[in-house]
Amino acid sequence: MDLVKKVLIEKINKSEWWHVFPRDHDAYTKRGKFFASTFQQAAFYGRPNDIPSRVLIKNPIYGFFEAEILKKLFPETYKDRILSENADSKNWYKKRIALDLAIFRKAKLLGYDAVILMSANGKKYLENNKKPPSIELNLLYPPARKMIVRNKQVKPFLKWVGGKTQLLNDLEARLPDNIKEDKVIDCYIEPFVGGGALFFYLKSKYKINKAYLIDNNKDLILTYKVIKKSPENIIKELQKIEAAYLKLDNKKRSDFYYEIRKKFNRQREVLNYKKYNNQWEKRASYLIFLNKTCFNGLFRQNSNGGFNVPHGRYKNPKICDADNLKKVSRALKGTRIICDDFSLCEKYAAPKTLIYFDPPYRPLNITSNFTAYTKNGFCDNEQVRLANLCKDLSRNNIYILLSNSDPTNENKKDKFFDEIYDDFNIQRVLANRMINCNGDKRGQVKELLIANY
Ligand SMILES: C[S@@+](CC[C@H](N)C(=O)[O-])C[C@H]1O[C@@H](n2cnc3c(N)ncnc32)[C@H](O)[C@@H]1O
User: Fold this and answer.
1) Is the CB of 356 under 6 A from ligand 1?
2) CA of 160 to the centre of ligand 1 (A)
3) CA distance 103 to 82
């Protein structure tokens, strides 16, 4: 094998070079799987997603400009196929995609597993065992594609009421410009972390130097800590529960669920929450099990703090997602996880810190009273206490982003948030939301994104 090809295969397979793939999934259908080691190339076919991925290639075809690859693939007709950059700009993208497809089909037919395109001067870099200034890797071989799938993003490990998964694009678009450009967040704080949808999303795409995750739900925080410290133990516990539960019929599943719920509620009375012990691992696994099998993934407590959500009816719930739990654990390394009131964020916030507040929603109507996450609820006075804290923090050059329900959905005259955040920039975005407490009515509602920048 020639030296250039050997270096390419070695470096790419060992992930010594950084691969990114475009987030625009249309790019895949238009031209097949596509990887690139530079931001610019991934950007060409869609917004790049900075997740390094492992691939396995054995027999790539490569070239230092496209004509070289075309010549190898189509020796007779390559001259006619060369696409000039100045070609009629209207159809240029279409022609580009068509040419890519032709290249990939022919390369596959000839038994190649990847097409690698580099800049004209790349050869001398490779001959010196260095990464060329630009490199575009297109994978053709199925095992390599499978590996991409396994490298999916880390997801929240719980279904959490008010979870922000569907607002992620809007939230990302509303981040400070310098963070979006540099892809670096020096310090990130989420004082109402819940399921942590935004944190896990950002963690996959941005370099976060320091992070603090806060919530006043002590069982939720305990679960975060257990996953961070001992993912293997919690996976073992959950696998046992999952195997026992899934083999039962509906009636027995329901009995099993209420048995665990009872254990979970009794354990609360005797558990030492202050010091990590193996009962924490049991408790965390109960919480995840209950969350995955209860009605609508709610976490609701009665006035004594007992978890009181009824059994849900999922046919085949994924109770133990071992792969994701390991990823969550890795994502939490170096992150401080704290059970406390949201106001604690003041202690850790320095200038340029990004704080994302996602407090319990102010109910859209009296029946959608999901603000009672824990027995203490979150009333209008609490929303005002939070707004005052945001004003204080704003004076210290801290970036504040906050989301909430928009009361004007229900009552046009209710300008509660416009009033308490009068110095902030308020944007309204649309989201699909559960709009009553039975979870059977969903609709498009306006949500508020409030920022101080
Ligand atoms: C809307 S949820 C957050 C959802 C989260 N963004 C997600 O993606 O899953 C609000 C969270 O605030 C927590 N919470 C309620 N009151 C709090 C307080 N005073 N201090 C800290 N956390 C609180 C609740 O336990 C709940 O997890």
Assistant:
1) no
2) 9
3) 11
